[in-house]
Amino acid sequence: MPIAASMFTDSGDANRALTSSLARPADAGPTPRGAAIALFRRHLARIQQGVRDEFEQHRVDGERAAQMLAGLTDGLIAALHDFTMNDALQDEIAAARLELPDAATGMELAIAATGGYGRGTLAPFSDIDLLFLTDEEPSPVILAAVEFMLYFLWDLGLKVGHATRSVSQCIAEAADDTTIRTTLLDARRIAGDDALFSMFQARYIVACVEAGAGGFIADKQRERTIRHQRYGESPFLVEPNIKEGRGALRDLQTLYWLCRDTFGTRNFAELARPSGPYQRTPGLLTEQEAKRAQRSWDFLWTVRFHLHYIAGRAEERLTFDMQPVVGARMGYTRHGRQVGVERFMRHYFLTAREVMRLTHILEPQVLREALGAPAVVPQVDAALRKAGFVLADGQIMPAPGVSFDEQPIMMLRLLAYARDRKLAIHPLAMHLLIRWERRAASLRGNAEANRILLELICGERPNRKLASEMDRAAREEEIRRGEPARSAARWLHVLNETGLLGRLIPPWSRIVGQMQFDTYHVFTVDEHTIEAVRILGTLEAGLLAEETPVANDLVEDLQSRRALYVATLMHDIAKGRGGDHSELGSELALELCPALGLSAEETETVSWLVLHHLLLSQTAFHRDIDDPKTILDLADTIQSPERLRLLLVLTIIDMRAVSPKVWNNWKATLLRELYARVAEVLAGGLATTERDVRVARAKEAVSGLLEEDGFAGTEIADFLQLGYGGYWLSFDPDMHARHARMIRESTLRDSALTVDTQPLPARAVTEVTIYTSDHSGLFSRIAGALAVAGASIVDARIHTMTNGMALDTFWVQDSAEDTFDAPHRLARLTILVEQALSGRINLADEIAKASGGMMGRRMRAIHVPPRVVIDNRASNAHTVIEVNGRDRPGLLHDVTAAISQQGMQIASAHITTYGVRAVDVFYVKDVFGLKITNERKLDELRLALVTVLTRAEEAAIGAPPPGPSRKRSGAAA
After folding, report:
1. Do 675 and 648 form a contact (C-beta atoms < 8 A)?
2. In what order do the strands lie in the sheet with 128-134?
3. pLDDT in the model for residue 967
């Protein structure tokens, strides 16, 4: 029998339609189980598809769809109950030879929806939570009925969470288990004995009142803390869990449960009603706050429904491949330079922040109602009382009669007192800060407000010398939690969560919740910025001495501390505006810094740091720091030793704040070497242009080492004649000595190929040196062999010696960006290099095998447009080629092969990845050892490289979804 369209608004109609389809003539006997399952399955498919159609055609939002699905599921279960009790169970009774009780069987059993389903909402692929409520001593018939219904539902393909309990068991287990108490809060009868269910409800309410709300609230808060630890303390992770993450649905549900248990309310709107049946809840929320809570609830449910339907399962994580699809389905399109997916994700993160703010507003009032008013101690601190604050339960809050609405400056004064006296902010005070944050806009230009804000941004300079080892351990624990009493990051989190920071610094509000759709950045822009400030505080406290020894020493003696903290706060403040965020941010800094109270000199320093905050990292990872022009150009831009020190510290904290995986010893080494060379020039030391002097000193240094090793004078002389000037400036004396030993051994053995591997754990790399006959395409073949071996190249130096041999050095890492040092893998690497150079393996086939399953759907969802930049100004001796494209196994092999095919020689390569985007830089010459200046030749080179990159991008996007994503080998960060 067809089901009418009205079934999607009336579950009763759907129930009657299904019951009618099960009806049979009296003399036909019970409907066979198989036939009944077929009817129910068709009915289930119709109601599920009907709800999906209503939702996807935008006739209902997520919450309304969840209510419809729950209501229609009610009808299906009620029909199953009727079928079981009135029809199917007769065969079960006969087969089991059970005796019917005197009373009708339907009077001894009630079926109730519990948990989220009990609230009348159900996601497409969520569990259906059922309580089979029985008499104190359920009859065998009732137990048989429960068993029949459960197996029937499982046969329909439904996931059922179930419990069979008597009323007394429900009460007892709810008292012992908060989870059970929570699921029963919204228990709702679907079918069966109404009187039995009413008795349960009455007894349950009494039991909850007698137990009190205090223990329940504490348990739910503990559950939330554990959940946040598991799914992420930050609500601004770029791939959030929309159900369990911080600021997600479960946090809203926790608030609902607390209010439901304490006040008996069933939605947020009831918390804003000044009158009516819930007299205990007037004024807990304003009408506007209640509306924002409902909007957050609707938005999260809509996102969840889209996720379930797209994934075809109960998917709760908003991964990169899901984000553009969900965003498009919800109508988010490009706006200016901002793509639709970034607009959608910003809406999500702002919603998560709204949930956190709602928690700060509502939860303190629930606690106050459940546990009583806080114990205010007004006379303990007369100065505090005079300032307008009191201590409640040891936490600071405004004194009675103090209004943030009338005196908005009191909001900042409260934060200042809390910081200076190491006091926690009372939850009721947080509530008031959030409720009146819009009044902070009136404080712009207020001298006192700007002074306090600047003090909160900069924190307090730690005194390392006075700290004992015990103090250090305590500070480490505090900083690990990110909440030392005077940490700038702690107060920035408070300012950001309450909204005060965006009111006081308007450009900040534009980066709140702003994400970048890539796999490199783990946090939103605002969260990344606060994390950078936290790391700066950690560095100042001396807790990163081992990881960043140079920066650890520098930060203690900086003369421009305030400028550094403000520059850290503003370095990404112009992201999302279009254009170069460094240039735009530099201009904003010129406007904002004077308002904060910075001097003209400090303002200029902040603006300069924001403009150049990427300079050191781009130079260290994308340029040849052994090229004299690289160092001279950098020194000309920086000019001041103090600026160099500030820039190094800002670079390090910026990188470490992106993601824990971004920073490693190799990058630390490159930055340290770059800093030392630029500092030498700025200090008036040896000029980088004195090339001959540096070459002579390098030869002199290695000669002494070789004499100590027993080299004969003729052997030393022969070695010194092998290298051109660039070779002697590319390595330190110890490396030169290793090369000399390697070349001598190769010559004695008359070996065509020598491969030497040297793990360097301090740098998190393994050095691979290859000595063989030079020929066109050598770099490409070696890169391909390393890719097949699973080694990721992070840097390379290519040198042709005067005897026609190539001495190529590669620094590689494993897939975890650590030293590639497993003996069996090093042995395999050497064999693969030999096979590749002798032509005994097909590199293209082997790379294809190694690439299998390395590009999952999450990575393919991110578009990486191919880009090739050719620069003839960055080096006096080389043409610099920068290649941007999708990271994949063998990319370096293909790119270098294209360069070789154009008749060019590679002198050095610098390999960096940013998530799925590879940025590889090559210093090249033509066959005569000169820069390439012919425009036609450069155009041909650019076209060849773009073709290689485009093929990789098209293959990645068009590839079928394989297994989990993995990093490429051959060119990794």
Report:
1. yes
2. 160-166, 128-134, 109-113, 188-192
3. 33
